[in-house]
């Protein structure tokens, strides 16, 4: 056995490369990253591959070490190039954009140190930092100092945590679930619908509240629906509002909705995953009036702070309710110590194994300061308004004036199917590849979407997009 152990140890030591090997890998990776960043504005936002080309991509796991140059070469051809390039300033189709560079440094160090971020006992500094970041976000939206929450992988898990906490805080069980009511609009993000189902609330009554002409929840319709449901012996317990919808960027009348929620002892959750950080822009603060009275809020740093994918947040006023839903004590964790000052993230979320996400947020805020983020957010709002005005000059119909940095528009051709014409525009934009746009359906009508939230998107990109759309319309008429 001793001889076998020594042999296995020798083989396993390949997992601990020396400094020379590490330096060589670092050099190759850094050169690859720099080459990408130096040319990111020249790389297409979308590279269209045929199904045959995608099917030809294969991956292997070698028994012996492979050369890093070979690995990076496949990374470029088979992973980085095909499809959408989220790091591009031309990524105008979906909400998140490319991550600021300092995010990668935070992730690199977090992976090297591999600090555990789940339990205060195991990583007190890590937990203090992540809780500080959560409290900082709570302060931004006007929550009290006693509020907390969790850093999540994104808005989907954040919404799930909020819905599950609301379920337990309002005592929704198998006995009353079928008579309990949740209120949303058709514009609510689909992750909220998933959260309702995953949280065991699939048998609740989900009311879709009517919207006004600006695609915002009609609070009078909400008020009437709640009153009718109570009169019918039902149990209204949760309303989910949006502070920046995915389709149109609309902000629901939060102050009116939250008042109705409080009057009827309902939990108010605001999904501000996309729009929340726009509250940092002084001219936009008033639009978020009422968010501070919510019971919970979803807000994504990988959206409004331009960080790389993988860091969302849920902010919750009642930390005890959050704890009651998620805390679990296992026998093998009896050695951990409790602290009243810093709740452990593992007690406030479904995750026990928890990556140190906070470093990818804290380091960029340190290295850049907050002002550039505020400037980039305001720039995106103004660019959207600029596009809103200019796209009409070339014959496009527009939706509501944009609340934030998402808007809808479409072209109405003569003697052609409107929906097919606009879907063809999307296909032609993809073929060009320099920018990427998306479409949606509202009331069976196809609308094109402009979603600006890449820090690399500037006026030059928008002007190119306008000229491209003008050219495509002219050729397809």
Category from helices, strands and their pairing: alpha/beta
Average pLDDT reading: 93
Strand order of the largest sheet: 3-9-8-7-6-4-5
Instruction: Tell me the β content.
Output: 5-15%
What does this protein structure show overall?
The protein is of the alpha/beta class and 477 residues long. It folds into 2 domains: 108-368, Type I PLP-dependent aspartate aminotransferase-like (Major domain) (Aspartate Aminotransferase, domain 2), CATH 3.40.640; 371-476, Aspartate Aminotransferase, domain 1 (Alpha-Beta Complex), CATH 3.90.1150.10. It contains 16 helices and 13 strands. The strands form 3 sheets. The chain has a 7-stranded mixed β-sheet, sandwiched between helices. Strands 10-11-13-12 form a 4-stranded antiparallel β-sheet, with helices on one face. Strands 1-2 form a two-stranded antiparallel ribbon. Strand 10 and strand 11 form a beta hairpin. Helix 6 packs across helix 13 (358-368), helix 7 packs across helix 12 (319-326) and helix 15 (418-432) crosses helix 16. The radius of gyration is 25 Å and the shape is globular. The termini are far apart. The model has no long low-confidence stretch (mean pLDDT 93).
